[in-house]
Amino acid sequence: MARMNYARASCTALEAAMRSDDRVVVVGEDVGRGGIFGQYRGLQQAFGGKRVIDTPISESTILGAAVGMALAGLQPVVEMRVVDFALCAIDELVNQAAKARYMFGGQGRVAMVARLPNGLWSGSAAQHSQSLEAWFAHIPGLVVVAPATPQDNYSLLQASLACGDPVVYLEHKELWGLEGDVDPAKSAQLGEAEIVHPGRDVTVVTWSRTRHTALEAAALTEQQGVSIEVIDLRTIWPWDRDTVLASAARTGRVLITHEAVQVAGFGAEIAATLAEETDARVRRLGAPRIPVGYSMPLEDESRITPQAISAACTKLLEPRNARNPHR
Known about the structure:
By secondary structure, the chain is of the alpha/beta class. The chain is 36% helix and 19% strand. The protein has helices at residues 6-20, 43-47, 59-71, 90-97, 100-103, 133-137, 150-162, 210-223, 241-251, 266-277, 296-300, 306-317, and strands at 2-5, 24-28, 52-54, 75-79, 113-115, 143-145, 167-169, 179-182, 194-197, 202-206, 228-232, 235-237, 253-261, 281-287.
């Protein structure tokens, strides 16, 4: 067990993978100097420039080269700096990496981890603060992972490297300094959620940084005599239907909350599944459909707060409206 931050946890996991498997390589901008968040610090010094490869500023070239590397038998870890920049490489990710295994009848697999830091980034405005997990969850062939803690950023990165398929790995832009205990012997299973706060009245389903916001909300609601169960999905695809449905059966009320825009966010998929499979009351809480503002008051309009989660949970506990029993 060691104490480390979110960035160091991923770097430590990657270092262990590179020592155990010569096929694992890193490719991207600024990786030689450690990456803009320190998530590659020391790796080029340890493994050299042929395994930690600095590239020109061309996202489509970076990801396209990584697809070729993977098809040739390497296991590239691709650095896109932030998810917003990966949109310049969407064809290589969506039309090539995601489809190769299917189109070649399993003869070619893209065992690649694309690190696309996701979510709001304070003071960085609309082109650097998007949460795009629903885009990638929509694409057959992609695995989508969203670690929220240092332990998960260690264990889920190892699981992603081992899965053999292209993984969109969505670390949160504002979690890099978050500290926690990391046990290198603790493994994680893709598609397995974690109940991080047991409760009896309302189930809150979330992921990434909103896990921590939901835990703050749980403390607020406890003061009001309301017990909420917080589930961190950890992987967006595959997502842990069984854990969510079992919790919904216990509480009868579910709030799905995420930092992404609420309209067509991945919470809608979970809500639809709950509507099809359970009788639980369901609400969603996400960001408004506006670009993230640069000024702090405008940026705050896109943030999900503990108070907003607490209020939404309280709303679920109100008696049903006779005219609209779903509210």
